[in-house]
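hi support,

uploading two proteins for the ticket. first:
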Amino acid sequence: MPQNLFNRLKIAGVIILKGTIPPPAGREDIPPISDEEVQEVKRFFPLEKFFIFGHARSGTTLLARLIRVHPEIHCNWQAHFFTRQPLLQALVSNPEVGEWLSRRSNRWNHGRDLSPLVLRGACDIILEREAHRVGKHIVGDKSPNSLIHGEAVHLMQKVYPDARLIYIVRDGRDAVLSHRFQSFIDSTQHLSREDLSIRSAFVQDPAPFLRGERSLFTPKGIQRAAEGWVRNVGETDQAGKDIYGERYISLRFEDLTSQPWREISRLWAFLSANLKLRGLEEALQTEFEQNPDAEWQLQKAGEIAQPLQKGKSGGWREIFTNHDRQFFIDIAGDTLQSWGYPLE
C-alpha cells in the first residue's frame, strides 16, 4: 500500500474513533512569536488582522460575506491556517527545517529560531496581498474550527497574539442538521454504507424525515455530532476569553439573521472600522438578501436541497425524531441553555 494512502487511512481512522484529527507529526518545539518580532513584522505587513471561527454550518460564510460589505474590511475564507491539517505550522514542522532556521551558524536568526517569523510572514502575505488588491486595510479569514476546536485558538495565538478573534455560535441542533445535509450533498465520498442508505431513502421519499418520523442520523452519528458541537463551543469560547480578552467577541447566528445591522455594526466597531460612512446599512441589507450557498446546493444536488429551507432557525423541531431530541439534550443540554437556546 502506498505510504500516502496509508497515512490518509490512518488519519481517517482517528477521526472516526475520536471525532478529531490527530496532531501533525514533526516538531513540538515551534516557539511562539515574540512581542518584539510582532512589531518588526508589522513594519512590513501593517494591516490589522482578524479571524472568524465557528462550528461547521454555524453561519461563518454568511458572517464573512456581511462583514466585508464595509469599504475598509476584506474577508475571505477557508485558508485554514489554524483549523485544518496540514495547518500553517506544517511549513516549519519538519525537524530539519527547524534545525536550519535555528542553527547557530545562521547569522540571520540572531540566536533565535526564525520559525515564527516564517509562519507570520507567510500568513501576512496571503492576507495583505488580496486586501491591497481590493483597497482595504483591515483583513481577515474565516475558517470553521470544528476539526480541532479550542486548539485552533492556541495555534492562532502563537502566530497572531495581536489579532482579533470572532466566534459565531448556532443552535447545535440546527448546526449538525445543516452539516448532515451538506455531507449528503457534497461529501458523499466520506459517507458510510449506513449513511448512504439513509441518503438514498431521503432522496426516494423525504416526507418521513421532514416530519421527524425517521432519523437522518445513525445512533453513533448523532452522538458524535452532539459531542463535537459541545466541545467546539466550550473550548473555543473559553480559550477566546482566556487568551484574547478584549480582542475576542462572540455572537449567535440567530441574532445575526434576525438583526443583521445590530450585529454587524457591533463587529465593525470591534474591528475599529468607520461606522459613519454613508450607505452601510443599505449595502448590508442588499448582501443579506443574497443566498449563494443555497443556489449552489440546488445546482449540486437539487433532489436533496429542494425540500429544505436554507438557513432556517429551529428547523430541527420538525426534522429531529424524539430520540434525536432527547439524545441531543442529554449530551448538549447545559451548553444549549448557557447560550440561551431553549431545550424544546
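and the second one:
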Amino acid sequence: MIIKKIGKIIKNFFITFIIIIILTVVFFLFAGDYFFKTENIIITGTDMYSYEEILEAGGIIPGGGLLGIDSVKAKKNIKNTFAYIESVKIKKKLPSTVNIELKTGAGLFGIMLGGDYYIITSNFTVAEKIKLRSAKISASDFVPPEGIITIEADAVRKCRIGEVILFSDADIYDFLKEIALLYVSGNKNSIESITGIDIKNKFKVTMNYGDKFLVRLGIFDNISLRILNSLEIIEQLPTYAKGIIDITDSKAASFTPEGNIPEIYKSGAHNTG
C-alpha cells in the first residue's frame, strides 16, 4: 500500500509539473502577443544610420511582441545590412523595452580598383563603393573624402562590400594595423593629416601629407615609430614648408625643401631611388 501511495504521489507530481510547464509556455506565448509589447526601443552608438533603418534591418516592429523578437537573427541582419557597424547588442527588458547598442567603425582607408573607389574601415571591412565610372568621374579628378587615407597597392585579391578586403601579401595587414592602432589610440588628428600611402613596394614605402610632404618610410618594420617621427619633424618645420622627409634606415632623418626636390619625385615616381 505504501508503495502504491508513493507511486501515486510521484505520478500526481509529474502530472502537475507537466501542467505547470504547459501553462507557463501558453502564458508566455500569449503574454508576448497581448501583454509584453515592444513600446520603448532605445538605439545607442551611432548617428550614421536612422532609427527606422536599424529597426527595419533587424525586423523589430514597434508595438509588436517583445518576447517574439529573435535577438540573434536581428543582430546578424543589422551587421550584414550596414558595413560600418562592427558589433550589435540587443537586450530585452520586461515589460516593454528593447535596448540596441551599436558600435560603428569609421572609414579610414580607401583604394582605387577597377575605376571605382572603395572605403575601408579600421578593421579592414569594405564599407562603401563610390561608383566613379557610372558618374563618369576620372580617377585623376576624384577627390577622396576628408580623413580617408588612399592606399596604392598591387596585392588586392578581393574587395567586396561588407567583407574584409583580401590582400595577397599578409604583411600589408600588419602594416595597416599599426596605422589603425595609431588612429584609435589618441593620434586621430595626426593620422588624419595623412592622405596617401604607396605600398606597391614594401621596401620603399612612402606617405603623403596632403600636398605638402612626401615621407619616405622605407621598409614596413616599426611603421608606428616612423610615422610619429615624421610628425615630429613636420611640427618643427615652418608652416609654409613643403618637400620630402626621408626617415629610411639607411640614413639619418632629413628634409629636402620643395625647391631642391629632383624632378623624378615631382613626377610622382615616389618609390624610385
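thanks. also noticed: DSSP finds seven helices and 14 strands in the chain.
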